[in-house]
């Protein structure tokens, strides 16, 4: 079987709280990004290139905690693929949203963070990916 991953994503440098990113993407006919595989994350990281907005605190994704577990709130799917560094996620009572951020060494990782923090965000086309035979 030959498969192709089709992922169209756009990063927006306008900062907003995580709760407002869903509507911001919807206004553009898009949805907040959900990352289901290393391949998808690599495509997003390649598109972001050397973007320095992600250093320190990065870009909102559709990841959020539902109780004690994280899921993609756009689909309700559990995070089957994760890229949290050691020690993350932490602070489960206050940090319930997931950002994609860039370390100083250029590596991208995930972090749970307070949802009312204003960060840039990444939207993607709907559905999040397509495979063709």
Automatic annotation (TrEMBL):
Leader sequence residues: 1-17
Keywords linked to the UniProt accession: Disulfide bond, Signal
Alphabetical list of SUPFAM superfamilies matching this protein: C-type lectin-like
Domain C-type lectin per the UniProt entry, residue ranges: 25-124
Pfam families in alphabetical order: Lectin_C
Gene3D superfamilies named in the record: Mannose-Binding Protein A, subunit A
PROSITE patterns the record matches: C_TYPE_LECTIN_1 (PS00615), C_TYPE_LECTIN_2 (PS50041)
Protein name, per record: C-type lectin domain-containing protein
Organism: Dendroctonus ponderosae (Mountain pine beetle)
């Amino acid at each position: 079987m030959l498969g192709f991953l089709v992922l169209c994503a756009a990063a927006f440098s306008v900062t907003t709280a995580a709760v407002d990113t869903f509507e911001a993407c919807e206004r553009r006919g898009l949805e907040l990004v959900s990352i289901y595989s290393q391949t998808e994350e690599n495509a997003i990281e390649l598109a972001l290139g050397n973007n320095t907005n992600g250093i320190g605190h990065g870009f909102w994704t559709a990841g959020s905690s539902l109780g004690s577990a994280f899921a993609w709130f756009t689909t309700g799917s559990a995070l089957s693929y994760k890229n949290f560094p050691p020690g993350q996620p932490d602070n489960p009572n206050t940090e319930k949203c997931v950002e994609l951020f860039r370390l100083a060494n250029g590596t991208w990782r995930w972090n749970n963070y307070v949802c009312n923090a204003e960060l840039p965000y990444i939207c993607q086309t709907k559905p999040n990916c397509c495979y063709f035979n």
